[in-house]
Amino acid sequence: MNERMRWSSERAFVFATAAAAVGLGNLWRFPYMAGENGGGAFILAYLIAIIVLGFPIMLMEFGAGRTVQGSPVATFRDKHPRTALFGWIVVLLTGIIMSYYLVITGWTLGYSVDSVLGQLSSFEDFSAQYNSLWYFLIVVVLTTGVLIGGLSGIEQKANYLMPVLIVIIIGLSIYGLTMEGSRDALRFLFSPDFGALTKFEIWFFAIGQAFYSLAIGQGYLITYGSYLPEKVNLPRAAGTVAGVETGIALLAGLMIFPMVFTFGLSPDEGSELAFNTMPVVFNQVQFGGILGAVFFTLFFLAALSSCIAGMKVVVTAIREEFTLTNTKAVIAAMMPVFLLGIPSALSFSPLEIMIGDRPFLEVVDMFAATQVVVTCGVVGAAIISWLIPRDSLLQSIGENRRRMVGWMIFIGRYLPIPVLIISLIRLFL
Question: H or E stretch including 416?
């Protein structure tokens, strides 16, 4: 493990990890999940889930990766040979999520190109042809190229992307608050119906989004934690990452929903929310062409960063488990993800591949990114907290963090149990 690469600094680790999880999880998925689940009640449940479950499990996964310094498969095998299978399940889950994530990243690229050309249109027009498929292919090629370039390419891009992205999102959020529909948006987002918190679905989707936003149960945190140098203050770095991701999710709501209410759109548009909302805005406001080009270009770069991070999880596992070169591992990882992504790309095309009454992509997202992510997150937390000795976690997280590690282990061992029961009930009912 002495030859294993390392992040050059805590700042590089924070930027790269935040860029890995911010992407579509917060800019695309959080607004549409909030819109479909009542706004304020969902956000309150989401914030509670972040604090009570999300951050402790996030820190635990970072600590496990730092302790073992290997892929998710190697990390779980290190504790018990049979748990290596769970590591492969995590890698498989990440590959499934990436299959449609690359498709949506293609949408952001397509909208970026259309914005620059002054041809921004509705999502219905965009998906009327095979744009979803062609841009998916382009993103697959771009992601493959960056991954072959190695870890330094991810770090260098993240260092420049994250500060610019945050500035742009803050600017668009401030602009949104000046719009006519901002009062309705603020009421929708921050005046929760407390009666809705008694509904099982609100908590289920909120926990799923919290795990998805923080990249829990997907191997990202274990993989990125495995590259941590000793000098990094892990609780501080993890807290910064969690704060940035949560803050950007809320800013995304402040950016999109004032526009939704100003122009009389529906907040429960589903997965197409951002792509239906933003073109309407940019086509009507002053300097909308320039604003649209900037927004969708940054949107694409953030999404691409998440694609790279997700595929890095799969590539690392394949490379280390089968002792392949980086290039061979990248190709071996990308091929099945590419093939699985084709139906998702075609579900928003003239072929309209559906499962029931929903597009193939949305069904995969709701199952993998909520149901399976929650299950993998809590099972992984239980394995780590029961099988990794407390002293090892203390050494990884900090000898002076005994209370934090104690709380983290308690969360990992006991609180996921009711979450897992609820998740299984949701799966079979």
Answer: helix 416-428
Dihedral through CA 233, CA 236, CA 242, CA 245, nearest 10?
-90
Alpha helices in 323-372 (DSSP H): 326-346, 360-366
Say how far residue 265 (Cα) sits from the centre of its chain.
Answer: 26
227 three-class SS: coil
Nearest-5° Cα angle at 304, 51 to 311:
80
Check if the beta carbon of residue 311 is closer than 8 Å to that of residue 146: no
pLDDT tier for residue 140 given thresholds of 50, 70 and 90:
very high
Q: What is the mean pLDDT of residues 399-428?
A: 77
Residue 86 scores a pLDDT above 50: yes
Rounded CA-CA distance 296/159 in Å is 19
Per the DSSP assignment, residues forming a β-bridge with 355 are 358
Please spell the DSSP secondary structure of 60-110, one letter per residue.
Answer: HHHHHHHHH-S-HHHHHHHH-GGGHHHHHHHHHHHHHHHHHHHHHHHHHHH
Specify whether the CB–CB gap between 201 and 360 falls below 8 A.
no
Burial class (CB in 10 A: 0-12, 13-18, 19+), 422: middle
What are the E-state strand segments in 186-310? none
Q: Report residue 170: phi and psi, to 5°.
A: -60, -45
Q: For residues 56 and 408, what is the distance between their CA atoms, to the nearest angstrom?
A: 5
For the chain, which domains are there? 10-428 (1.20.1740.10)
Q: 154-180 burial string, b = 16+ CB within 10 Å, else e?
A: bbebbbebbeebbebbeebbebbeebe
Helix (H, G, I), strand (E, B), or coil: what is residue 359? Answer: strand
Using pLDDT thresholds of 50, 70 and 90, give the confidence band for residue 1: very low
Q: How far apart are the first and last CA of the chain?
A: 46
Q: How far apart are CA 173 and CA 170, in angstroms?
A: 5
Mean of pLDDT values over 362-366? 88
Do 215 and 20 touch, CB atoms closer than 8 A? yes
Which one has a higher pLDDT value, 344 or 397?
Answer: 344
